[in-house]
Description:
Elements lengths: L1 E7 L3 H13 L5 E5 L10 E4 L2 E4 L4 E3 L11 H8 L4 E4 L6 E5 L7 H27 L11 H7 L7 H15 L8 H6 L2 H6 L3 E4 L7 H9 L10 E3 L1 E9 L2 E8 L4 E12 L3 H5 L1 H4 L1 E3 L4 H7 L7 E7 L10 E5 L8 E4 L5 E7 H8 L3 H15 L8 E7 L2 H7 L4
Parallel strand pairs: 1-2, 1-12, 2-9, 7-15, 10-13
Antiparallel strand pairs: 3-4, 5-8, 6-8, 10-11, 11-12, 14-17, 14-18, 15-16, 16-17
Helix pairs in contact: 1-8, 3-4, 3-5
Amino acid sequence: MSHQVIIVGAGIAGIAAAHTLATRGSVSDFLILEAGDYVGGRLQSVSFGGQVFEAGANWVHGTIHPETLKENPISALVRAANIRGHNSNSDDSETLVKDTATGKDVTLPAKVRGEELEAAAEQLHDKLCQQVESEEWSIRNDISVREGLKLNGWQPLSALDRTLEYFEWDFQYAEMPEITSAYHNVLEEFTEVDFGEMEFFVNDPRGFSTIVKHLCTECSLDPEKDPRLKLGRRVTEIEHTCDGVKVHALNLQSNCVEVYQAAQVVVTVSIGVLQRSSELLKFSPALPTWKTEQFTQFQMALYCKIFVAFPRAFWEQAEYLLLVTEERGQYPVWQPVPGRPILIATVTGEKARRVEQLDDSEVVAEFLPLLRAVYSDVPQPTAVHGAYFSGIETALQVADVL
């Protein structure tokens, strides 16, 4: 049986593609192939400590522009699905900063240095804008954020500086300033330019993936029993023929390869999978070099969330708690859960990759001394849950490579 369109992946991009085909293109003859056992991709919730948390995506970055009133399409979808949450802006949020070396609260000096870092970043942004407008800039003279900040008077001279820098860059982009492109990550902040700086933090007990279910409802796609959605199918090869496309998928339950045919295919897998297409997803004939070279221009973000429950809350209530440590990126960002004795730590980049390899007891042994350095009478956690959504690592797990 042949279909009009096969969609590879049932994350937000795949479901949005199906929604667009059905509602704008009048195409109902589509088939979605998904390796996982659920729809939503990185929009996945977990139950922890009697509460629902987002294991993956948690924010809408840029909701509506305050002057143009242009609204982020994701924000519009969140509103349509009546997703609960609150506006959040890390620049204006209540953030406490504690030094693990001295045990002291360093929020005030952190505010001063944070303003200096922000000033350097704004100068870098303005200079890049001027270069682009005068056509003096090209990809060949792109620089790293580290170099750009240095040229504009910022150098991280202390552990406090490194922590603030981590919060500003690594926490947002999951990349260190040394490897972050100044052009792509400073100038091309399209969501902020188009939709403003305000962020929306999702804390809906139904989960952020409710927006996916909302899209499914609008295009009459039942995630539970619609034959147009096949879960547990890992696509291994996409073959372009004179009659259309053949999509080879491994049925993860029967371990048998199934072949599906269509006139066209829409591929919505992550950039991490595309970068490893020789191992995970074969294209026949091979994709042109100009296209595969574009894949290498991007790096999949590595994020790791760690949910920690305690018998009682021992911290002050704030939106963020930053721990200053001598080693950069050593569990620096914590988010207290309002009204619950739960903290959420976020680790990024190579630190996240390393933490993924540890068991819960090893992770606790690393972060607990840091908390005890700044708070007295810190009890042993009652529960710990790691949510590891780090791009290629997750893709490899789905592919049963690890």
